[in-house]
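Known limitations

Files may contain more than one protein. Parsers should not assume a single record per file. Below, a two-record file is shown to illustrate correct handling: read the sequence, read the token line, then continue until end of file.
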Amino acid sequence: MDDHRLKYKMAGSLKATITGKYIYTLLCDYAGAKGRIQISIGKISKLLNISRTAVRRNLHRLEESGYIMIHTKSDDDGTRKANVYELI
């Protein structure tokens, strides 16, 4: 089975909302070989044309379900940066 079909089959089997599945698939598409991506909620929102609130809510649901880990990032001065999302 090719990578795309496997990825979509895996996303389809997630116990998540349709929006959560879209977000998970996007993370899979952009994650590197280590299964990690640093991307802002705003960027995900624009790419999928869904609200930032829906993105935030579904990312936390994906984390609570054990599908991803969210790593918060900040600069040395404490300024928040885009989170890093790790696929489990």
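...continuing to the second record:
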Amino acid sequence: MSSLTTSIALGSWVLVTGASGFLASHVCLQFLKRGFKVRGTVRDPTQSSWLLEGRFKSYADIGAIELVSVPHLGADSAYDEAIKGVAAIIHTAYVTNIVPDPNDVITPMVAGIRSIMNAAIQEPSVKEVVFTSSALAASPLVGGIDNGIIGRDSWNDAVLEAAWAPPPYGMSHAMANYPASKVTAEKEVWKFVETNDLHFNVNVVSPAGLTGEPLDKKHIEGPANWVVHAYRGNKAAMDPMPASFYADVKDVALIHVAAVLDPEVKNARLQCWGHSAHWNEILSVLRKLRPQKEFVDDYPDPHHLEVSLDQTESVALLKKWSDKPDKNGWTPLEDSIFENITNPYLEG
């Protein structure tokens, strides 16, 4: 592994919230491979026992990974016990419910930020905190709309108005609540940074669409597994989002790791959107990889999102911290799609 200087000592405990998630599970694995210990928070450890088996078993056998229950991320003092003795926190957990009432999504997300940040303030061992935000916090990522130039101060504030529109709550609220929760939660993170004299560093990592290897079957069935939607021809999921950005989950996990370990990354808002792509490009790769399978027809008038952003810092971290011999930055989209569909969990 890399011999680079790290901001926390080798062998330190790292807290990863929502550890059973697609991205979070890769974050856990990469820290373990680098010689750190991982404490993962999950709603129910019995439902996430796969994190102690398979690829993780050798680490579990030596006590390098453990799971703790945090059933309600927004509860007061939810993380007070889990945070004890950790050197770093990666807060990936989010409210997964797609429901109309913003009070059931946005409110607990913000409460979760307050809970974990207040716990970190009280724990002297904490040196680094990384929050997983979303590209949707900075941009609507809607095809055909000018998303503009994304910078440090870019915010998708329009979605807040949609989410908090007066009741009765309907589907428009449900679709707006997730991005609105990310906008509000990330702003709450930076509010903590600005209004408190913190003894730890804070960075934010903002991915767009994720592709790549699932570590558990539930990662295949998730609503945000865009490649699987295209593989199965799920037009209901595809049609509203004709174009987006996609990065390999291992790349985004590595940026989280680097945001913790790199002493030079301070107060960063790391956009790691990866490759710009539309459905026809993804379908073309799928046809190449699975020539015997029929896929949905190409979309007429394909186009990329009209958005400009600087991912230089994220790519530099990939090259600096990668253990790959080529160190070329983003994993090619075709390679990532291959890993997405070549696994024991995808059928048909």
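Parsers that stop after the first record will miss the second one. For reference, the second record is described as follows. The first strand starts at residue 13 and ends at 17.
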